[in-house]
Amino acid sequence: MGDTMVIALFRHGLTAENERKAYIGWLDAPLSENGKADLCEKGSPVSKYEWISTSDLLRAKETATYWFPEQSIHSTSSFREINFGEWEGKTYDQLKELPDYCKWLNAPFTVSATNGESFKEFVMRVDTGWDLLIEQSKKSDRMAVVTHGGVIRYLLSKYGVTEKEFWDYSISPGEGIELIWSNKERFRRKERCTLLQEVAFTGKRAGQSPLRRSKDLQ
Q: How many domains does one find in the chain?
């Protein structure tokens, strides 16, 4: 076991809700037929990981099972997407006239979705999942997490090489990014990583960055 620490963050494959740009949150949506086809075309991650963790929602577990069919999958609710409450399954056009939704759009880090989860609650939950990875780093130095767009944005804003805002990051369904620390102690002290690196797939042409700038939190 080496001293370098690698955490790969993967966003689950495409769902029907993604395709119609709905807020999914905690809805247990499966991968769509297009999502399954995209994963098949992309192939599997070239790199190998010793420990696989996922959100416990179906779309993440299906994606992890496709990519890592012969490995144990450790799912946890800590890596779920933020809960959008009464807005789940609905689109911007369906919500845009609601006063509470307009307030949330203007202040998503302080205003919660109706009967949903606050950003503070979301952060505390995801941090609990990260602590589990720190504990597991005693046994593994290459781990993968199959999760959701909001979780990945938050973790990159907190642990990316340079300080950036939550909305500065976005990752497409079925893509992955590796966070690399030069030594495990930096990782365990919760310092920023020293390198961000695109995850390569067996069927994907190199040079296409998975990160983009957007505001589609799904």
A: 1
Largest CA distance in the chain: 55
pTM of the complete model beyond 0.90: yes
Sheet holding 51-55, edge to edge: 73-76, 51-55, 142-147, 5-11, 176-181, 195-198
- What residue type is 14 in one-letter code? L
In a domain, 207, yes or no: no
CATH code of the domain containing 194:
3.40.50.1240
> Vertex 81, ends 40 and 147: CA angle to 5°?
35
- Domain membership flag for residue 177: yes
Residue 180, domain extent: 5-20+37-81+119-198
Quick check: is 27 in a domain? no
Cα–Cα distance measured from residue 151 to residue 123, given in angstroms and rounded to the nearest whole number: 8
In a domain, 128, yes or no: yes
* Crossing angle between the packed helical segments 33-42 and 58-67, to the nearest 10 degrees: 30
Each residue of 67-123: pLDDT tens digit?
999 999 999 999 999 999 999 999 999 999 999 999 999 999 999 999 999 999 999
Token pair, residue 31, equals 């991968």
What is the rounded radius of gyration, in angstroms, for the C-alpha atoms of the chain? 17
- Give the integer Cα–Cα distance in Å for 217 and 82: 9
Encoded tokens for 102: 């307009």
The answer to whether the beta carbons of residues 58 and 30 sit under 8 Å apart is yes
